[in-house]
Amino acid sequence: MRQREDALDSARHARVATRTQQLGQITLWSALLAIGLAIFATAAIARQRTERRLAEANLREREKQYRLVTGSVPAMIGYVDRRHRLVQHNRAMEEWFDLPAERVANRHLAEIMGNDAYAAILPGIERALRGKRVEYEGRAHAVDGSEHVHAGTFIPDIDDAGEVSGFFALVIDISERKATEEALRASEERWKFALEGAGDGVWDRNIQTDEVIYSKRYKEMLGYADDEFGNRREEWKKRVHPEDKARVMAELQAYLEGSNPSYSTEYRMLCKDGSWKWILTRGVVVRRDAEGRPQRMIGTHSDISARVRQQEEILRANERLDLALQGSRLAIWDANIVSGKIYVSEGWAEMLGDAPAATVTDAKTLYDLVHPDDRERVSAAFIGALKGTQPEYHIENRVMTRAGKWKWVLSHGQVVKRDAAGRALRMTGTNADVSARKEIERMKDEFVAVVSHELRTPLASIIGSLALLDKKAGMDPETQTLVRVARNNSQLLGRLVDDILDLEKLDSDTLQIQLEPVELEALLSTAIQANQGYAHQYGVSLALVESQGPAWVNANRDRLMQVMANLLSNAAKFSPRGACVEVRLARGPGAFRVSVVDCGPGIPEIFKPRVFQRFSQADSSTSRQRGGTGLGLAICRIIVDKLGGDIGFVSAAGIGTTFYFDLPPHPQFEQQETRAGGALHE
């Protein structure tokens, strides 16, 4: 048993020794393999590092070459990624945007270009990032403010998988090329215009062969197609009017021989349809031989039929004007402002009682004939027309006749010529004897004044009596209605008489308007309160809705209240029930403006020119129903004129009407406000 156990132990020890030996060999080979792998890995890493260093050096060299190439190219070159960032760029981009490299590299395009320029090319950027090649032309402003024209190209950067990672951008400044193209185009247009601009035809004659090239426009002017008119001199010659031919040929020959310095002639030519056209031909010899004989001549061919007809019309018009002046007994005058000489036709001498004869005089001689009371007005009107502050010279004044009597004359004229600085050079017009009309107006005014004064006393009695009757108790309704109708119409007649008397006084200058400082904002409030009751009769309210007061003017309070009463009553009468008539006070350039705004039916276009005329009413039937004399606005115009202001209106059908008047600020208060404003800014 013991031997057996020993044998088993020996066998076991032998197996362990064998396995140990085998394990040692495996471990040795594993160590050797690990050492080999480590050596291989080290070599591989070293080789990769070497290759990477070489690649980086290569890349740096290529980048250096890229920057060298792109930096020398006169264009902006860059690469934009999908986030719209400029990853690469050349120096041209830095110079264009005037930014350092760090402000350009890896920046968003909007940050570099600005939002407006970025938005302009954004559609192109989006197309390029979708894989589309983009080409465009656009305009942009450089840092110095100058405008440039650019041609841009976006080339997508597509990888092997078909994905777009960005795009290359090439932008070239083509401003000079565009300017050259534009200059060339303009030159071609000028050349074309020189040939056939303004409707002229062109001809080119070879004098030796008598061959003439006629332009298309030349032939069209006479009604011919291009192939219907031969290129021979005979084609022109046979169409010249027989009555003009000898003269035209003589003038042409005299020019070719050197007797005339230029060739320019007018004549008639036969058209295809059998009509005659007036033609202006100009020509010049452009080539001569060694002995000075003409060889080639070119020229233009212009249709002047319209001008000839106009000249004939002017002659006929002048004849008619002479006849009209003789019939109307108007006198024409023509003033040369520079020389001071004034031409007056023979009608002026007749007005003064002299023998009919046209004369040349001067402003002082004519001014001495003007009535002393009218000279200031005449001078102001004439100077206003010369300076352009008034559209025309229009005035009635008295002049002394040779018999020593005063005659009323209406003078009307306009400046017809000014220099580059706007100074008047020439002024023309007419004088008319209006003495007869003035006498009729005087008689009419006297008659109206007398009648009006005579009506006032009985009217006052009638109005007073009717007022008492209206208050009397016990009358039946029908009688009371008749009494009120009579009373209202009597009051209307009374207002008409008052208005007529006011007009008579204003026209005859017997009414002296005393001027005083008036504050418009306070006056408007008072006027609204005074007329509010009248407006309530029509279911209308009055309100001051806008004011830029205080507004001091040099005026007359009572007369301004009269103007406001007329404007407010008109606005109330023509406004719908429930409406509000708005009053506004605004400060304008050199004047205060008062406006009265209604929302009535508006003023018909046909009536607008007569709004401020006396007894004018747009719709007489409506006006009679609402009351009114047709004199209120005429009185307003006269009062505002006498206060040195202007009055007018704006009206639109179905929208309403705005009447306004402008008054200059009071000089004293204007100076105070100016000084106060200056003190505030010191």
Question: How would you describe this protein?
Answer:
The chain has 682 residues and is of the alpha+beta class. It is built from 19 helices and 24 strands. The protein has a 6-stranded antiparallel β-sheet with strand order 3-2-1-6-5-4, with helices on both faces. It has a 6-stranded antiparallel β-sheet with strand order 14-13-12-17-16-15, with helices on both faces. Helix 16 packs antiparallel against helix 18. The termini are far apart. Residues 620-625 and 676-682 have low confidence and may be disordered.
Average pLDDT score: 81
- Number of alpha- plus pi-helical segments: 19
Kindly report the spatial arrangement of strands forming the biggest sheet.
3-2-1-6-5-4
User: Could you give a short account of the major beta sheet?
Assistant: 6 strands, antiparallel
Computed CA radius of gyration, to the nearest angstrom: 50 Å
Net shape: flat
- Topology, number of strands: 24
Q: Which segments are poorly predicted (pLDDT under 50) over 5 or more consecutive residues?
A: 620-625, 676-682
What share of the residues lie within helices? 40-55%
Structural class: alpha+beta
Residue fraction in strands: 25-35%
Give the N-to-C terminal Cα separation.
136 Å
Short description:
It is built from 19 helices and 24 strands.
What is the strand and helix layout of this fold?
Elements (H helix, E strand, L loop, with lengths): L1 H71 L3 E6 L3 E5 L1 H7 L9 E2 H5 L1 H15 L4 E8 L5 E12 L5 E10 L1 H22 L4 E6 L4 E4 L1 H6 L11 H5 L4 H15 L6 E8 L5 E13 L5 E10 L1 H24 L2 E6 L4 E4 L1 H6 L7 E4 H6 L6 H13 L5 E8 L5 E13 L5 E10 L1 H37 L5 H32 L7 E4 H17 L4 E7 L4 E4 L1 H17 L6 E9 L2 E8 L21 H7 L5 H11 L3 E7 L3 E8 L3 H15 L1
Parallel strand pairs: 19-21
Antiparallel strand pairs: 1-2, 1-6, 2-3, 4-5, 5-6, 7-8, 7-11, 9-10, 10-11, 12-13, 12-17, 13-14, 15-16, 16-17, 18-20, 21-22, 22-24, 23-24
Helix pairs in contact: 13-14, 14-18, 15-16, 16-18
